[in-house]
């Protein structure tokens, strides 16, 4: 029975049966694999290792064809992206031998995690797409247990593709969702009531973000009565759509009234697809106009799309900063986080999707990959770093535990072994065990290791921030000034959000530094940040210009005094390089002398820096 429930390369559940039959099949699958989690994991590992026994990587590490857990754990190192980089570069440069995986690498998925300022490149194979699709096919059966009637209406999802590049060896490199939306699986979706979206494929596949957003909103508004759920991948993307509507509802209403598409929408495929949906509808135009111009945007989602039952967006991790805004715009509709996934591998799903955002837990699906867990201990919350070495010695390696052996309440870093050729790879996410579904643990997402700043999919760690600030602060010397202390804050009070740096300076003459110099410092910091940040600024426009706020002398001493009153130890106190706690932000803001914004866009182009320079 389990054999049947765990196909080698899972196909999305059949759509041939009735909705109820398919839902039951999916739920039964979840039941089976969570009961037999350990057995499934053992088989997944054995399958991966036997398939890839002849790969250079497994041979190099001396696995010698063994497929058992014991030998695997003894022999194989626990690694990070940096360890794998030379192999990845060979693949990117065109080496097609079996380096990491026995199956041909079909493309690279570009992660929002970066290495040396560039997106990490995750090799993938064709069948992984089916595995990802399979996880998607479990979501609606789970959701339908809690919200009836979802098969009767439409979903308004704001989905986007990003630009892709080619590696010197000719492999495509693009984000995982772009790869999925461009695949025939997505484009030729069968007539499934759960993938009935308001956005035609052409609007999603349009690379121009303005045209894509405009046309998706237009189609969503035209079908407003039919919409039963709305969403985007991350909360930031959904907020961006609302902000876009705030700016462009006049044009959208005009199109709805006349049944014609604004001339700024020039993509012929988009125009044709939209024209099949858009019909002159003055009544709807009046309604949208009345709602959008009434002054308050509170509850705008439920007003314009009155049958919406929930918002499907990820609000766990750094995305939790958007919860208050989503509550405001939706009159507190349920916020539903359905899944936890990455470019490396799709991990798991939320089996209790109507729970509060703060209680979301993900059940890792044991067929997706082989999972291990490295226990972590956290230092003081204010510092918010994770103390653990980057390279693990033998003793530390022994601490890794299997999926069914994790302990309730304990925090772990996720380590995966995938079908696509990652072995004991540290994903960098910290998870806490919150409970169990049968024998499978469920996890709260705690944080991405070391990430201090994030607005959209950008993930900036302390070292990147430090280097970028240093590059700018180095220029203070010529003004007989220096940077005494700094911290940062991801300000999402307006859309798009932006990075704020609080700088305390030691300066002889405060007037000796003209504003244009500070504006240039902002620009230098932006230029020094990684490519995901610069892409967000330049291409996606999902991040606003970076701001430096100069604070009065003594501000950082006050910050330390504050931390001490909160129980920090004076011996251990370090200035937090990022602040999130409202009283601290208030304190910093109350001491601001002047503030400056970057006036230029940093450099950005698709692909990796070294590929661009090769061309
Ligand atoms: P990427 O490699 O760009 O696809 O980003 C994957 C990362 O996004 C994961 O490793 C997590 O850090 C984060 N992420 C993905 N899904 C979730 C989720 N449901 N909640 C919080 N963070 C998530």
From TrEMBL:
A single GO molecular function term of this UniProt record: indole-3-acetic acid amido synthetase activity
Domain GH3 middle: 362-448
Domain named GH3 C-terminal: residues: 464-580
Keywords: Ligase
Tree of life domain: Eukaryota
Entries under Pfam families matching the protein: GH3 (PF03321), GH3_C (PF23572), GH3_M (PF23571)
GO cellular component: cytoplasm
Homology family: Belongs to the IAA-amido conjugating enzyme family.
UniProt protein name: Indole-3-acetic acid-amido synthetase GH3.1
Organism for this UniProt entry: Hibiscus syriacus (Rose of Sharon)
């Amino acid at each position: 029975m389990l054999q049947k429930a765990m196909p080698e390369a899972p196909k999305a559940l059949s759509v041939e049966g009735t909705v109820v039959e398919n839902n039951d099949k999916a739920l039964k699958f979840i039941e089976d694999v969570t009961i037999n989690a350990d057995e499934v994991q053992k088989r997944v590992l054995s399958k991966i290792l036997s398939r890839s026994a002849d790969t250079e990587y497994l041979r190099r590490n001396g696995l010698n064809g063994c497929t058992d857990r014991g030998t695997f754990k003894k022999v194989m190192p626990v690694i990070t992206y940096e360890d794998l980089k030379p192999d990845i570069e060979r693949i990117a440069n065109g080496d097609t031998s079996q380096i990491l995986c026995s199956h041909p690498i079909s493309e690279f998925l570009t992660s929002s995690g970066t290495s040396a300022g560039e997106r990490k490149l995750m090799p993938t194979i064709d069948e992984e797409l089916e595995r990802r699709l399979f996880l998607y096919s479990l979501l609606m059966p789970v959701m339908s247990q809690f919200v009836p009637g979802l098969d009767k209406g439409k979903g308004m999802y704001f989905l986007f593709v990003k630009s892709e590049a080619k590696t010197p060896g000719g492999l495509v490199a693009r984000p995982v969702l772009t790869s999925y939306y461009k695949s025939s699986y997505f484009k030729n979706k069968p007539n499934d009531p759960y993938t009935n979206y308001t956005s035609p494929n052409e609007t999603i596949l349009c690379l121009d973000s303005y045209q894509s957003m405009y046309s998706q909103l237009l189609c969503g508004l035209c079908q407003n009565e039919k919409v039963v759920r709305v969403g985007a991948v991350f909360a930031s993307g959904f907020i961006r759509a609302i902000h876009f509507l705030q700016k462009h509802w006049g044009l959208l209403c005009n199109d709805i009234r006349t049944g014609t598409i604004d001339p700024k929408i020039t993509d012929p495929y988009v125009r044709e697809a939209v024209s099949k949906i858009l019909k002159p509808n003055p009544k709807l135009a009046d309604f949208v106009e009345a709602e959008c111009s009434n002054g308050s945007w509170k509850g705008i989602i439920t007003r314009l799309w009155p049958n919406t039952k929930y918002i499907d967006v990820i609000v766990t991790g750094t995305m939790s900063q958007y919860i208050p805004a989503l509550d405001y715009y939706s009159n507190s509709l349920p916020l539903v986080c359905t899944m936890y996934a990455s470019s490396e591998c799709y991990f798991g799903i939320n089996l209790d999707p109507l729970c509060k955002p703060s209680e979301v837990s993900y059940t890792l699906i044991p067929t997706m990959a082989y999972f291990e867990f490295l226990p972590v201990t956290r230092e003081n919350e204010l510092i918010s770093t994770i103390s653990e070495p980057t390279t693990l010695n033998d003793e530390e390696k022994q601490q890794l535990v299997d999926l069914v052996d994790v302990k309730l309440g304990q925090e772990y870093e996720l380590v995966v072994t995938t079908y696509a050729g990652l072995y004991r790879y540290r994903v960098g996410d910290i998870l806490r065990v919150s409970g169990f579904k049968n024998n499978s643990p469920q996890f709260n997402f705690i944080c991405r290791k070391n990430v201090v700043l994030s607005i959209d999919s950008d993930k900036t760690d302390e070292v990147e921030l430090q280097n970028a600030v240093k590059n700018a602060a180095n220029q203070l010397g010529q003004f007989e000034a220096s940077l005494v202390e700094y911290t940062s804050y991801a300000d999402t009070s307006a859309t798009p959000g932006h990075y704020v740096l609080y700088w305390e300076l030691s300066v002889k003459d405060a007037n000796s530094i003209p504003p244009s110099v500070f504006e240039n410092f902002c620009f230098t910091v932006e230029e020094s940040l990684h490519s995901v940040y610069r892409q967000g600024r330049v291409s996606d426009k999902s991040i606003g210009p970076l701001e430096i706020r100069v604070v009065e002398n003594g501000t950082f001493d006050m910050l330390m005094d504050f931390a001490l009153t909160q129980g920090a130890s004076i011996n251990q106190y370090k200035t937090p390089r990022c602040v999130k706690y409202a009283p601290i932000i208030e304190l910093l803001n109350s001491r601001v002398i002047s503030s400056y914004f970057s006036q230029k866009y940093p450099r950005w182009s698709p692909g990796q820096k070294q590929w661009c320079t090769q061309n």
